[in-house]
Amino acid sequence: MTPTSGLAALTVVGTLAYLGLAVLGAGGLAAFFSHPARIALTIVLFALSGAALFSGGNLSPGEREDRANRWVITAFGVIGLLAAYLPAYTERKGVWILDGDAVRWLGVGLFAAGGALRIWPVFVLGRRFSGLVAIQPGHRLVTSGVYSVIRHPSYLGLLVNALGWALAFRSGIGVLLTALLVPPLLVRIHAEEKLLRDQFDSGYEAYCRRTWRLIPGLY
User: Fold this and answer.
1) Where do the TM regions start and end (predicted)?
2) Which own/partner pairs from 198-202 qualify as long-range (CB within 8 Å, at least 24 positions apart)?
3) I need a surface site. Which of 59, 93, 99, 179 has the fewest CB within 10 A?
4) pTM value surpassing 0.90
């Protein structure tokens, strides 16, 4: 798929702003790139952003949208800005740091794995994947692949990705910020599931009975 110009610009600007805040928090380019884990983190960030450009996702309200849920996007944005800056800043200042280089590399691995899980469902759904809680034209229920196990793999990827970013800076505050993503995420999940129940009726109910929302065996 080819990216739309608006979404492509948003992705590029968002990625550069996110990295820029981290560099600022770390105390500059030299300080940020002084550790190989942060270099690897940057490479993964650009690779994921590049892949996202061709995923086919959009921000369309589609045929029907739950507009009351849009506040969640603002919450994600605020937490995201804090998560971009504070982990690098607190590492530089030595505030609530998790010790050891192994934590950094674990973070890089989780950031990559979570990012891949975040983007993969967007490729699967294509134009039916919207950043808004909405029913798209030609919307159909996908129940195969990763969706045969969990109903919201992209959101699980978001949490793993955010946790990986925090750990790459060994930041306890970053881990806390990841936890703060959970309440608005659950609100969004419930809003999406209500919309899908209204759209697909008993088919979605049957699908819910045989799958998990986020974590198999737990939730």
Assistant:
1) 7-33, 39-59, 71-90, 102-120, 162-187
2) 199/64, 199/135, 199/139, 200/141
3) 99
4) yes
Domain residues of the chain, as ranges? 5-209
Say how far residue 42 (Cα) sits from the centre of its chain.
Answer: 16
Name the residue type at position 46. F
Task: Answer whether CATH 1.20.120.1630 is correct for domain 5-209.
Answer: yes
Q: What is the DSSP letter of 123?
A: H
- What are the tens digits of pLDDT across the range 47-74? 999 998 888 777 788 888 889 999 999 9
Do 21 and 85 form a contact (C-beta atoms < 8 A)? yes
* Cα–Cα distance, 33 to 44 (Å, whole number): 14
Express each pLDDT in 134-151 by its tens digit: 988 878 888 998 999 999
